[in-house]
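Quick check before the chapter quiz. The format below is the same one you will see on the exam, so make sure you can read both the input and the output lines.
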Amino acid sequence: MSHDEYQAIRDAVDTLNLYLDGLPITKTASESRIQEVRVALAQLMGVVERYTTEKKKSGRKTRLGEGDTRSSDWLDMEGVRVWTAATAATKTAQEGGLEEDENIAASMRVAGFRLVEAALEGNFPPPQQVCCRNLHMICRTVSALLKTSDDRALASELLIIGADYEHIMKHSAPRSEADSQDRTKALLDFYLARVETAVVDDNLEIALSFIDKILGTDETLDLNLSHLRRVATLCWETGETARIKLSAKRAEISQELSADSVTKKSCASAFSEEDEGTVIAFFKKAETIVDLMSSMKGGATLPEFEALKLSILKSQTRVYLASQDKERQILGRSMLELIRGASRSTEEAAYELAVLRLHSLEKQGNVVSEDERKDAIQAMIDHTRWNDKEVLSTLSEVHGIRDMALCHWANHALLQSALRDPRGHAFVGNILLTLLVAIRKVPAERQDVCLQTVTNAFKAIDQARLFELGDRAKEAACATMLWHIGGDLFDKGKFREASSWYKLSAHPCLARANDNSKDRSNRKAALCCIRAGNYAQAAEYLGQCSPHDAATHYVSFLSAVEQGEPLWDLQLAFLVMSRT
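Here is the expected output.
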């Protein structure tokens, strides 16, 4: 290398060094300062590329010159230093959510690796230790590029360089056990990077081929439990991501297709089944690896082993249950039963599996008995932990049940469960309010059944001696919703039914809704009874109101008018005026 070539690289490295200690930079620096960093990176990569291109053309094998600082060792040392600084900057940027800094750090990794590569010009192939290190740098750099800049062309270029290192390492015998382990780790990193790149490119078949390569009979990969866990986890994560995409794609296709587009439906179904098969293949690979791990010494005792195994099985089951293929649906239901025992490992897993089981039965429709459905619903409720996330999820599942009678049964079962457990008392208001919101949407001709459901709910609250719902806002919301239901029925001329709903809003557990909510509810119920001609019931409800409230006497006055009692009309009129 000429003095000018060497000096150009050294100057570019010195310029970049001015910014290394200040990373991440975007949070504090000006836009011009950030641009300076990008220019410094571009200049460094430019001079290094010119050097390597010239070196390849000339075919020279000379080193940089006399002295350590002017040798390829200097290039290698500086490259590793820049790459390591970029790695640290990436971590800091990720913790701070600084996306632009992650992008800069990824470019800086590339610059560091270019320096390391330049050090090898004329000295190829390098020893295995250098191959392992450089392959590790390639894999981490590719991963950073895919996550930040999405520069697939550059990532592919680096992977092609990595393939050269792979070839060298596979055809050279390690000198020690430590060398063998380093080689296995480096090659595994490389293959997993190839999988990651293929997944980003939506080329799942290529990704599967590299998984097969890892699991093949190639003796250069002496995989231990830690290695296998990495591969199994990546298989599961890839399959789960693909499953979610497939589910979204199905939903999109379902919305786009019209009722008579038979050809489109068949094409979409075939396309969906092909994707489904690929997703299942990833879960099958993960399952195979887990089985292999369980046969190895200490495999089944790994802390993560059971959780990973359960995650894989749950994902597989979700695919089968969502499938259009009847055989896969049957397999999914059988898998549910097989893994129910595994649900004891965590409470969260038990809940998720109970929900999956309910989904499976709902999908089968009328072929499932009511007792079997109730058993599944009760299992879900029993496994519901008293936190906002799971209670909200369970309420959503309960009110997603299409059979109204079964939905009301499930809601009552959930309410009973909340009343039995002191931790569930805080959620009684949520359960009751959600029920009332759902009931308001029910047609008026079916409100009798709903009335009985809500009446039973209040009886259960009475039996549990729960005198308030814990949250005054929820109590007010429940009372208001009961008034709305009563008002809807009143407007339709169903006065008797409306009075019953208004009377429920006078329940003691809703007394804190506002200062006179009980009296207001009783007066509304009495008015409905008057319109229905049930004056005795109206008088009973009015008797439960405060005698000092003018509104109560006014309703009594209306009742007397309706009954045609002129003497009482006059007396009540005086009472009303005396209270106002």
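If your answer matched, good. The mean pLDDT is 80.
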